[in-house]
């Protein structure tokens, strides 16, 4: 069984998070931003500039030149990705387990298989444990905006969240999350 992957933001992720937190900024504003020192302290500034360039090429940020300075802002797609990254950071925090399992059950029809596969990939990224193909488990409280990502894709009634105090034979799940 795969071990739970702890989310570690890339340099590009950190740039998106900084832009999301600060709004419109120019490149010198990145230093000494707390996100930069949290995630990128070991990276040279040129690497950070390269990450900004890649984000701009992907259409996640927009740069405009004013008075010899480049001012960056998030695009709509960049805002969506920044929201997902913040959620991943929130879920990656070390929480104290309250003894309850959060069980996400979904029933997505075959005709929208692409959305179903996207949902599975997201659950893996967020650190959920696959109990069955459409039943996933997570031990900690979920942030209130967790379902916003899925509501944007019109999953609606196809997702159900159940809280349970126990799951029979949960040894492999506990091992996955490092719980005793």
From TrEMBL:
<dbReference type="GO" id="GO:0006351">
    <property type="term" value="P:DNA-templated transcription"/>
</dbReference>
<dbReference type="InterPro" id="IPR036388">
    <property type="entry name" value="WH-like_DNA-bd_sf"/>
</dbReference>
<feature type="domain" description="Transcriptional repressor PaaX-like central Cas2-like">
    <location>
        <begin position="96"/>
        <end position="171"/>
    </location>
</feature>
<dbReference type="Pfam" id="PF20803">
    <property type="entry name" value="PaaX_M"/>
</dbReference>
<dbReference type="InterPro" id="IPR048846">
    <property type="entry name" value="PaaX-like_central"/>
</dbReference>
<protein>
    <recommendedName>
        <fullName>Transcriptional repressor PaaX-like central Cas2-like domain-containing protein</fullName>
    </recommendedName>
</protein>
